[in-house]
Amino acid sequence: MVRISPRQLLWLLAAAPASAWLSPPSRATHRPLQAVVPKVDLENVEEAFAYANEIREHAPSLFERLETARPEDALEMLTYAEQLQKATTYLRPSARQAVRYALEVAFLAHRGQTRRSGQPFVTHPVAVASILAETRMDRDAVVSGLLHDTVEDTDMTFAEVEAMFGRDVRGIVEGETKVSKLPKMARELNTPDWDAEREQVENMRSMFVAMAGDWRVVVVKLADRLHNMRTLEFMPPKKRTRIARETLEIFAPLAHRLGIWTYKTELEDAAFRHLYPGEYLALDTAIKGRRKRCEAALESCRQQLEEMLYGDELVRGRARRIRVEGRTKSAYSTWKKMRRQQCGLERVDDLVALRVILEADDTTESVEDDTALCYHVLGKVHGRWTPLPRTLKDYISSPKPNGYRSLHTTVLVGSQPLEVQIRTDDMHRVAELGAAAHWSYKDETASLPWLQIIGEWEAQVDSASVFMELVRNELLGSRVFVFAPQGRILNLAKGATLNDAVAHVIQGGDWGIDVQGGALVNEVSEASSYVLRNGDIISFAAQEELPLQEREPWQLCSVCRPLPGDAVHGVAAQHSTRGTVHRANCDCEVLRRELERPGARFVDGAALAMNDDDYDAVRQALGPSSKVKDAFTGEVLGYDSSLVVFGRDRTRMLLDVSQAVSMVNIVDVMSETRAPGGQAAFQYTVHVDDRDHLDRLFDAIREVPDVVRVVRGSMRLLKRKGTHAFWAMALPDSEDDSPPSAPPASAPYL
Question: Alpha helices, DSSP H only, in 247-330?
Fold first, then answer.
């Protein structure tokens, strides 16, 4: 005899037919479900399954599993049922009953299967269903979350799924199954050119096509990926890295597109933690430390804001409740902003913020009244604290494409900036849950236009790789915005080149722009293959417009990054004083590309020393005007320089190296480990004053235990010779690739 707890007893008693919440849902396609009344002593294990009769009738593949269920199976299933019962209280009784039915099906289908963690496999679909319930997805989505692996990994069929739960659930489960089922079938047919990369492309293609028919397919897929990311540590390292990178490139942007912020943030942080564990740990610790330091001040501001709003007659009359909450920026979002703005954590003004959520009174006449209340609160905030210029973002009048609406402003509290977000509770629900809160699936007018675009592409594009490139570039990848002549802004796909921008200008022939003189980026001549960045300024100028001596002076190469005191070479256009300064004794890809241009001339060290014009131009390029300045304060920070530290992977290695590097301003840091306990490489982007300053930094780093070598440059450039050659530099007996202490005779030491 199996013993059950009082809580399980109550649950079983509630499963009787007389109970409203387990009254089976009616279905037009087959006989209404009839819940089995279980006996409390559970002498017959089958009696723990409320829908045993329905399973026998509609799922023949589960018949044997149902007949051979054991007492411990019954208790395990009841534990999951209790978990889902708590998570789905927002659903109607008939919907909660369908979830219970799906749980029994999933439990039987996956019985005996285990995950890499050693847990029963059914814990995964139960977790996926719970995640979907947290975002208040509808009945069919939660049921599909429970069943999403049944057809792929068990003997169940789509026909059985449809017979039990209807056509919509079958469609979602089928959409999920297509993601991985088709590549497996192709491998079984021994397709000769099939490989892992093609499999992934086909997986993604299938997912997007299925998603275009029912947006719930992608929400279930996101919940599936989210739980897999929570348990990713049980995967082999190589597969872990691939899944994490795929999550950042595909799934987190999808969550952003659907506006499901809770999914997006956790997906990004989990992927960040596995791809860059050192950076994640350091940044997460720093964020928590800063949050703790400003906790008292933040709480004081929260109380002041709450008291001010409750004391306002208009707010008090229109809002039933006011919530003022603290919000901390996620680790990955913070890391991206630090890289984008090339700043340290102390420069991230919106790391912590206050969020005002206004729950409208039932007597509020219209949505416009709620919106007006947000602007009223904004005025109160600006009246209390000084707003910082150009920080107001009005996403209410101009919502984001995913439906996000809110007011953002940054105010000065004492000497510290503080971001304040203002929204209604409806806006907040959309911000957190996205499509799950904002769109009704049954409302055809509320479909997502970008999903319709995917369906059109599928009909037009035969190649899976081309299809995925369209999705990545046009839908998922960040757009790049550049300034064109006459104040126009070009909205281009990430990775667009100067040639793409010129083509857009030419196509817009009504602009009246003469493009014959050649395109400039930020007033500097660049190759047509130059990859555009946000904020670049595109202009056009004829060669005869400016006298030779008034042309732009030489600039420093952004790849090899020469410093004052370095041995240098130069490349200039024929009969021009404009050129680029390169570091001597380094294999710079930009130098090679520039020399391939028609009319390019190489100016070596000896020529620089003999030509006063070139020499003065190079000295000017290496002068103080080329130093990086803080975008907000104008403070001169120094010259950009990159270095890679090779050493042995050990506990506190990144921390020890970072402490040595802390003698300069660190702009960015990233790490890579060949194998746990093996070799490690750390890349730092720093600001230094000159070559002597960099040499002192190298000396300090070499003093750190287990550091093998310090090399000037970036990981990407060092890997051009191959991964094996890159990691060979981490071996103690490899050739030191650090810059020589003295320049060769042919290169001036400027």
Answer: 252-258, 261-275, 277-293, 295-310, 313-318
Handedness of CA 711, 714, 720, 726 (dihedral sign): positive
Distance of CA 528 to the CA centre of its chain: 30
Q: In this structure, are residues 356 and 305 in contact, taking their beta carbons and an 8 Å threshold?
A: yes
Q: Are strands 393-394 and 407-413 parallel, antiparallel or unpaired?
A: antiparallel
CA-to-CA dists, residue 650 to 14, 242, 278, 367, 732, angstroms: 56, 23, 11, 58, 16
Q: What Cα–Cα distance (Å) separates residue 423 from each residue in 303, 355, 363, 699? A: 18, 8, 18, 53
Binned at pLDDT 50, 70 and 90, residue 294 comes out as: confident
Tell me how many degrees the CA angle 694-700-703 measures, rounded to the nearest 5.
145
* Strand ranges for 361-415 from DSSP E: 386-387, 393-394, 407-413
Q: Say if residue 38's pLDDT is above 50.
A: no
Per-residue tokens: 539 = 């202009």
CB 241 within 8 Å of CB 233: no
**What's the whole-number average pLDDT of the chain?**
75
Cα-to-chain-centroid distance, residue 704: 34
Tell me which residues are annotated as active site.
152-153
Residue 561 near residue 583, CB atoms below 8 Å: yes
For 54-104, write each residue's pLDDT tens digit: 999 999 999 888 888 888 888 888 889 999 999 999 999 999 999 999 999
Q: Which of 20-34, 139-153, 532-546 has the lowest mean pLDDT?
A: 20-34
Q: Which carries the bigger pLDDT value, residue 542 or residue 356?
A: 356
Q: From CA 573, how far away is CA 526, in angstroms rounded?
A: 11
Give 281-290 pLDDT, tens digit per residue. Answer: 988 888 888 8
Spatial distance between the Cα atoms of 406 and 327, rounded to a whole number of angstroms: 14
Q: Which two tokens stand for residue 496?
A: 């667009």
Amino acid at 681: A
User: With bands split at pLDDT 50, 70 and 90, how would you rate the model's confidence at 717?
Assistant: confident
List the structure tokens of 270: 């989990």
Residue type, 630: D
Strand segments (E) across 380-531: 386-387, 393-394, 407-413, 416-424, 479-483, 489-493, 519-521, 524-525
- State whether residue 260 is helix, strand or coil: coil
**Cβ partners under 8 Å of residue 559, min gap 6:** 588, 589, 590, 717
Alpha-carbon distance of 230 to 233, in angstroms, equals: 8
Sheet holding 519-521, edge to edge: 524-525, 519-521, 538-540
Torsion angles phi and psi, residue 596, rounded to 5: -80, -10
Distance CA 566, CA 605 (A): 11
Q: How many separate helices (H) and strands (E) can be counted in the chain?
A: 32, 20
Q: Which two tokens stand for residue 462?
A: 């035969």
Nearest to 351 by CA among 398, 400, 272, 292: 292
Q: Are 593 and 563 in contact (CB under 8 A)?
A: no
CB 671 within 8 A of CB 654: yes
